[in-house]
């Protein structure tokens, strides 16, 4: 599978060696150019600031902008594919609507993101065109010319030296989800840089071996940027993980699962963002490929899975009913391996699974799929082309070769430094509420403790190093994957709704799924850095509408 990208972008697996100066940490928008600061009448962080709001929805105008800027022409010329690429971009510039039943598409070979190391790495985000399988060239937002964005591999204790170059039509800032960098490198939306700007990230990776990821944190644009293709995995390794001899190489499969809405041609569209339940699609995507398939050997595989969807929850299972072995989640390896038949994975959550094909026969076929489910107390908008909980076949797996694989399945995995609720000195409560709001441009309000996000307001002040109990409540009909920056937490209990803590919620988490009528209690402690961080819903449309607060660790 090939990607076509404008000249000057770094090629897959060949990170560029370029950087500029220290990271900008001042309030307001970083980045070059005379328009880098908001006008006084529209301060940064306000809903009137054109930069904070991203200015406008990116639709056909932006692709026309892209063409006018020479991007598509140069891109097409460089690849010798002028007509098809321009046709794809021009086609995308035509109004298109998502349809519930797009044309049938083949299952296409899955691709793996190019791997890079964060050593003076340049990540350049720009509009481009990607091959999404089935012969479809789709416009998107690409990092270094690829969808998914490059996979960053790093070890605990190593420096993370990355420069982001923003050539999108929107402001952009990247957040390293699950890592715990200092405030200046955490991707707070107030650091978003305008088109043509750069941002330098410099910190040391202090996190355990695990599956982390990165995505846009531009306020009002998180959902659209993710949907159009900005997002990649970060795999952290350490000595504890090495000792387990887990499947690696061709048997380690990093997998970003997402859903998309398609138009009648099979091209993904992001239109009229559904700010009630979030943007839910009908079509399964794996690593940027529509209906991905892969061949396996009769061996043990490690799947490192991210739910990169805007709003869709996956209830994962093997279609043949066999169990899988859960070895890790958001905060890295668990203490012990757990056998699971099915597991809920909400947006932004990760699961690390050992999947055993050793008792399969060559020619066998199965699916990694999301089974049908209902959310008690959940509401749907009624106007969606797709519904939360509808079943989806996510990855077609074909057993192609017989081999002898003696790989052991470890039972004892790691020492997990859980915050102990017995040490708690304080409690806080966070109510996640959603209401109709006719005064809002989105007609919906999604709030935490009654507040919509204000970039300039500090909502919580939390002492560094002290253990606290935080309670999340949800009295509305939407699921909210609750995400905390700068640390991980220990899920203690869930009452109401599903009324249990699941195996995939053991260990350290940075995102926990809060269904309607559920109350989830967690033990939390900030031990990485002091500074201004975020607590928010990771239903990306909810987050964009304002379900986010500032947390000052001091
Ligand atoms: Cu939400």
Describe the structure in your own words.
The chain folds into 3 domains: 3-242, Cupredoxins -  blue copper proteins (Immunoglobulin-like, Sandwich); 249-401, Cupredoxins -  blue copper proteins (Immunoglobulin-like, Sandwich), CATH 2.60.40.420; 421-553, Cupredoxins -  blue copper proteins (Immunoglobulin-like, Sandwich). The model is unreliable at 1-91 (pLDDT under 50). The chain is 8% helix and 36% strand. It has helices spanning 60-68, 71-79, 82-93, 222-228, 239-242, 540-545, and strands at 3-4, 108-109, 115-116, 121-131, 137-143, 151-155, 159-166, 174-177, 198-204, 210-216, 232-237, 252-260, 283-286, 289-290, 292-297, 300-307, 314-318, 324-329, 332-340, 342-345, 350-356, 365-370, 392-401, 426-436, 444-448, 460-462, 468-474, 480-484, 489-495, 511-514, 519-524, 531-537, 548-553. With 554 residues, the chain is mainly beta. Strand 13 (283-286) and strand 14 form a beta hairpin. It has 6 helices and 33 strands. It has a 7-stranded mixed β-sheet, with no helix packed on it. The chain binds copper (II) ion.
In DSSP terms, counting alpha (H) and pi (I) runs of 4 or more, how many helices?
6
How is the quaternary structure best described? Answer: single chain
- CATH-assigned fold name of the largest domain: Immunoglobulin-like
Rg from C-alpha positions?
Answer: 22 Å
User: How many independent structural domains?
Assistant: 3
What ligand molecules are bound, each kind once?
copper (II) ion
Low-pLDDT sequence parts: 1-91
Strand content: 35-45%
CATH architecture of the largest domain: Sandwich
Strand arrangement within the widest β-sheet reads: 14-13-12-16-21-18-19
- Distance, first to last CA: 48 Å
Number of strands: 33
Shape: globular
User: Helix amount, in percent?
Assistant: under 10%
Q: Report the top-level CATH class of the largest domain.
A: Mainly Beta
The major pleated sheet works out as: 7 strands, mixed
Report mean pLDDT, rounded to a whole number.
85
């Amino acid at each position: 599978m090939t990607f076509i990208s404008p000249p000057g972008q770094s090629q897959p697996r060949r990170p560029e060696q370029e950087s500029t100066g220290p990271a900008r940490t001042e309030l307001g928008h970083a980045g070059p150019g005379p328009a880098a600061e908001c006008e006084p009448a529209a301060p940064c962080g306000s809903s009137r600031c054109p930069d904070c709001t991203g200015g406008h929805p990116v639709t056909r105008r932006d692709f026309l902008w892209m063409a006018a800027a020479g991007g598509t022409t140069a891109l097409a010329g460089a690849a010798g594919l002028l007509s098809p690429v321009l046709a794809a971009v021009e086609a995308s510039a035509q109004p298109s609507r998502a349809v519930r039943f797009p044309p049938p598409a083949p299952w296409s070979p899955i691709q793996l993101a190019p791997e890079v190391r964060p050593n003076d790495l340049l990540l350049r985000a720009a509009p481009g065109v990607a091959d999404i399988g089935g012969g479809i060239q789709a416009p998107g937002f690409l990092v270094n010319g690829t969808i998914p964005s490059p996979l960053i591999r790093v070890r605990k204790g190593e420096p993370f030296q990355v420069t982001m170059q923003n050539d999108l039509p929107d402001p952009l800032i990247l957040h390293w989800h699950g890592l715990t960098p200092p405030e200046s490198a955490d991707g707070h939306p107030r650091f978003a840089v305008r088109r043509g700007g750069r941002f330098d990230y410099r910190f040391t990776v202090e996190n355990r071996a695990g599956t982390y990821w990165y995505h846009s944190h531009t306020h009002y644009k998180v959902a659209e940027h993710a949907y159009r293709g900005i997002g990649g995995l970060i795999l952290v390794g350490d000595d504890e993980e090495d000792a387990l001899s887990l499947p690696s190489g061709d048997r380690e499969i990093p997998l970003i699962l997402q859903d998309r809405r398609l138009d009648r041609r099979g091209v993904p569209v992001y239109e009229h963002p559904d700010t009630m339940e979030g943007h839910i699609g009908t079509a399964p995507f794996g690593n940027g490929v529509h209906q991905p398939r892969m061949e396996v050997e009769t061996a043990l595989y490690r799947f490192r899975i991210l739910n990169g969807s805007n709003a869709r929850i996956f209830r994962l299972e093997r279609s043949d009913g066999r169990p899988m072995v859960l070895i890790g989640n958001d905060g890295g390896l668990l203490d012990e391996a757990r056998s699971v038949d099915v597991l809920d994975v909400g947006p932004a959550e990760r699961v690390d699974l050992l999947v055993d094909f050793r008792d399969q026969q060559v020619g066998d076929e199965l699916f990694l799929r999301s089974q049908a489910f209902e959310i008690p107390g959940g509401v749907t908008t009624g106007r969606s082309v797709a519904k939360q909980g509808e079943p989806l076949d996510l990855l077609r797996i074909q057993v192609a070769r017989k081999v002898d694989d003696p790989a052991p399945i470890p039972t004892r995995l790691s020492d997990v430094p859980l915050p102990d609720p017995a040490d708690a000195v304080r409690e806080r409560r966070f109510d996640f509420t959603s209401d109709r709001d006719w005064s809002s441009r989105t007609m919906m309000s999604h709030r935490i403790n009654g507040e919509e996000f204000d970039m300039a307001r500090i909502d919580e002040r939390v002492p560094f190093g002290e253990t606290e109990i935080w309670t999340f409540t949800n009295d509305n009909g939407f699921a909210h994957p609750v995400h905390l920056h700068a640390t991980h937490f220990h899920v203690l209990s869930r009452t109401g709704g599903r009324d249990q803590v699941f195996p995939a919620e053991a260990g350290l988490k940075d995102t926990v799924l809060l269904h309607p009528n559920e109350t989830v209690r967690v033990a939390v402690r900030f031990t990485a850095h002091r500074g201004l961080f975020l607590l928010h819903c990771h239903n990306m449309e909810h987050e964009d509408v304002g379900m986010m607060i500032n947390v000052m660790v001091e």
